[in-house]
Design brief:
globular; 0% strand; 229 residues
Length: 229
């Protein structure tokens, strides 16, 4: 059986290990690329442009819409049979994340007088991600049941975000806490999927799914820390 047709769940142990290694290596590379692109944006994008990105409810809704559309395109590319398109999809998604994060990272940096707040959020995210990943790989629990929770929770949260942007109300601390729970569920679900739903050649697409869930977790952990300032 050819590698690209071999499901991870049916693959020999050495093939599984190689798939997991490639997947998490690409997650790490995507995170490093995000840090690099974000750093460049922070020093090259004028402050007026960053303020413009969050100055109006319709501007922010437009950016959210573009992010959703771009995410859909990236996801499709990341699972294309062409390896070049897969990397294009992952790279494009990293760029989208860097752009959508730019205003919040800039504000968080200003709040803490440096990158301390961002670093704290990154460390908490890393520990939570590591713990959640370990739960999936070292227990026999089937987390496929979380799919419905994630879909429903995602739709409700999106509707709440849009309503908040239109009507100008603050989503508050508890919304961020709920989104941390949803992002954690997404990490559990996506990690469980890479064990059973992917074939051994889809490590780029798998890494994009994990990366997206990690960034969602990071976003709301950072929001919680910022709300305490």
């Amino acid at each position: 059986m050819e590698e690209h047709n071999m499901m991870v769940i049916d693959a020999p142990d050495f093939e599984k290990a190689a798939f997991y290694r490639k997947t998490y290596l690409h997650v790490a590379l995507a995170l490093l690329a995000f840090i690099g692109v974000e750093s460049i944006l922070l020093v090259t994008v004028p402050g007026d442009v960053i303020l413009w990105m969050i100055s109006g409810k319709f501007i922010w809704l437009f950016l959210i819409g573009l992010f959703w559309l771009g995410s859909t395109v990236s996801d499709k590319l990341a699972f294309d049979p062409s390896r070049e398109k897969q990397y294009l999809g992952l790279g494009f998604y990293v760029l989208l994340e860097a752009i959508i994060f730019l205003p919040m990272i800039a504000i968080a940096t200003a709040y803490s007088g440096g990158g301390d707040l961002v670093m704290q959020a990154a460390i908490i995210t890393l520990f939570m991600f590591t713990g959640l990943t370990a739960v999936v790989f070292f227990t026999k629990t089937d987390f496929s049941f979380l799919r419905t929770v994630i879909v429903v929770g995602g739709l409700v949260s999106l509707g709440t975000i849009v309503a908040g942007a239109i009507f100008g109300f603050d989503l508050g601390l508890w919304f961020s806490v709920g989104m941390v729970v949803l992002a954690s569920a997404s990490i559990l679900y996506q990690t469980d999927r890479i064990k059973s739903q992917y074939n051994t050649s889809q490590y780029v697409g798998a890494s994009l799914q994990i990366f997206a869930s990690v960034m969602l977790l990071f976003w709301y952990i950072l929001r919680i820390l910022m709300s305490r300032k």
